[in-house]
Write a structure and sequence with these properties.
11 helices; Carbamate kinase; VC0802-like; binds magnesium ion; binds adenosine-5'-diphosphate; binds aspartic acid; alpha/beta; single chain; globular; 2 domains; 18 strands; 409 residues; six-stranded antiparallel β-sheet
């Protein structure tokens, strides 16, 4: 008898018909003799609808109340799925995050799970029940409802699997696995049978929304066997594995991209020690994450400094930077939210030179101007104008032969 945690995303529970189909699938697993915990997202579109309702009332609703509001989306699906399971004659019980003690910090809208007490879930499982848990939510130490950031149900599932020492965590979604890039942008994208945690982490952190980055982090940290599969068709999906050696030895595993980028530039800053800290310190204090950073070589004792943030954080970051510019006597501040990031990811890059230059060559052939570059051992990211997103992704997919299975090391 295995203990399986299954997670179904928004599209998979997007209608009562689909919820019934999920119930059938869960029941089959249970009939097979396995213990099953199911984590569900809100019905597709529900979270966005709740966000717009709040924005109709206030442009910047408080984060605490937003969490109370958004967590209701998942409460709808846990009850509907439990009702569907009971209709099929199986015992099922639904729980909100707080009810199964998913304890988080108090960072509303991007809370981190700090602890899960799996005892209540275990008692139900041992009594032969299917347990249905609301994804994306928890409570902080004072009992306030928190949410885990968009896509957070993936993280609930993995954290649940870690806490219960589950045999596998299965993420059921609307694609049948992890692809070389988003199949919606590149129809020639190829499904991967396996991918390493390291690569999946880089793809997720560069914008591949198929798994939330924290879910991958959690799975790597607690060695949770993790698989991405289709809710709608049979198949093995993609296994996220710790084992480098089992993975196809491709140079590039995949291409990620993110539309959630914005770029800020401060020009004519006095070039003296501590200036980077003076610029980025206040941004960090406001809890705004900075991604890429470039400081140009100074001339006339001044320099230009550019960095990127999440597009949602742009208005606040701009306000802070304008104040810093005044304090430092900088010449001007510029903001640009018409940019995107494209990243090539692969552990095989470590042993292959010339990947970066081949990437730049392919982009230049299409006249795509690169605005910023950042590299790590297993990732090369570029910032380009948003109008080049699709062309850039397809060009790189083709240039690195990602539609074909590589065999060489
Ligand atoms: P769910 O609602 O089930 O959580 P998401 O929309 O969050 O589903 O994630 C699945 C989507 O992720 C796919 O429909 C696909 O468009 C997108 N995606 C982005 N990058 C990839 C990739 N490399 N492989 C597979 N899907 C990807
Ligand atoms: N419902 C939340 C969202 O839309 C969480 C999730 O689906 O994972 O982001
Ligand atoms: Mg998702």
């Amino acid at each position: 008898m295995a203990l399986i945690v299954q997670k179904y995303g928004g599209t998979s529970v997007g209608s009562t018909e689909r919820i019934r189909a999920v119930a059938e699938k869960v029941k089959r697993c249970h009939d097979h003799g396995d213990q099953v915990v199911v984590v569900v997202s809100a019905m597709s579109g529900a979270t966005n609808r709740l966000v717009s309702l709040a924005k109709e009332i206030a442009p910047h609703p408080s984060a605490r109340e937003m969490d109370v509001l958004l967590s209701t989306g998942e409460q709808v699906t846990i009850s509907l799925l439990s009702i569907a399971l009971q209709q099929l004659g199986v015992e099922a019980r639904s729980y909100t995050g707080g009810q199964v003690h998913i304890r988080t910090d108090n960072a509303h809208s991007k809370a981190r799970i700090v602890d899960i007490d799996g005892r209540r879930v275990r008692t139900d499982l041992d009594a032969g029940r299917i347990v249905v848990v609301a994804g994306f939510q928890g409570t902080d130490q004072d009992g306030n409802i928190t949410t885990l950031g968009r896509g957070g149900s993936d993280t609930t599932a993995v954290a649940m699997a870690a806490a219960l020492r589950a045999d596998e965590c299965q993420i059921f979604t609307d694609v049948n696995g992890v692809y070389t890039t988003d199949p919606r942008v590149e129809p020639n994208a190829r499904k991967l049978d396996r991918i390493t945690f390291e690569e999946m982490l880089e793809l997720a952190s560069s914008g591949s929304k198929v798994l939330q980055i924290r879910a991958v982090e959690f799975a790597g940290k607690y060695s949770v066997p993790l698989r991405v599969l289709s809710s709608f068709e049979e198949g093995e999906g993609t296994l996220i594995t710790l084992e480098d050696k089992d993975v196809e030895k491709a140079k590039i595993a995949g291409i990620a991209f993110s539309r959630d980028e914005a770029k800020l530039t401060i020009r004519g800053v006095p070039d003296h020690p501590g200036v980077a800290y003076q610029i980025l310190g206040p941004i960090g204090e406001a809890n705004i994450e900075v991604d890429m950073i470039v400081q140009n070589i100074g001339k006339d004792e001044t320099t230009d400094f550019t960095f990127t943030v999440h597009r949602n954080d742009l208005p606040q970051a701009l306000e802070i930077l304008q104040k810093t510019a005044k304090d430092l006597g900088a010449r001007e501040v510029e903001a640009d939210d018409k940019i995107v990031k494209i990243a090539l990811v692969g552990v095989g890059m470590r042993s292959h030179a010339a990947i970066a230059s081949n990437m730049f060559k392919a982009l230049s052939k299409e006249q795509i101007n690169i605005q910023m570059i950042s590299t790590s051992e297993i990732k090369i990211s570029v910032i380009v104008d948003e109008k080049y997103l699709e062309l850039g992704v397809r060009t790189l997919h083709e240039a690195f032969d990602l539609n074909r299975i590589e065999t060489q090391a």
